[in-house]
Structure to design on (98 residues):
């Protein structure tokens, strides 16, 4: 019985939580909105006959794709940085202390 209690207590420390969960959830919402907007613009591009408007729509599509890629990189960067933060850095001493 004591062993089970200590085991349950220790399990809580080893649970793997996603770092920056709130940030990731918000970023995923933004990315889903951007993808929906991208689909709408692609439909408009297919139906559009005016070349000036086609260029404008294609430019908007490029900007949206860049924003989507940047959002994905931010999510990945945040996940990688949080795991590296816990490492202890030891500074080398160049000269002996007096």
């Amino acid at each position: 019985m004591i062993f089970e209690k200590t085991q349950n207590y220790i399990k809580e420390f080893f649970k793997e939580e996603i770092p920056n969960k709130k940030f990731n959830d918000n970023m995923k919402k933004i990315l889903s909105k951007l993808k929906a907007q991208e689909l709408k613009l692609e439909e408009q591009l297919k139906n559009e006959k005016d070349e000036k408007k086609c260029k404008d729509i294609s430019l908007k599509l490029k900007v949206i794709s860049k924003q989507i890629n940047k959002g994905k990189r931010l999510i990945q960067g945040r996940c990688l940085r949080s795991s590296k933060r816990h490492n202890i850095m030891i500074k080398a001493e160049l000269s002996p202390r007096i």
Notes: The chain has a mean pLDDT of 79. The CA atoms of residues 7 and 75 lie 33 Å apart. The radius of gyration is 24 Å. DSSP finds three helices and no strands in the chain.
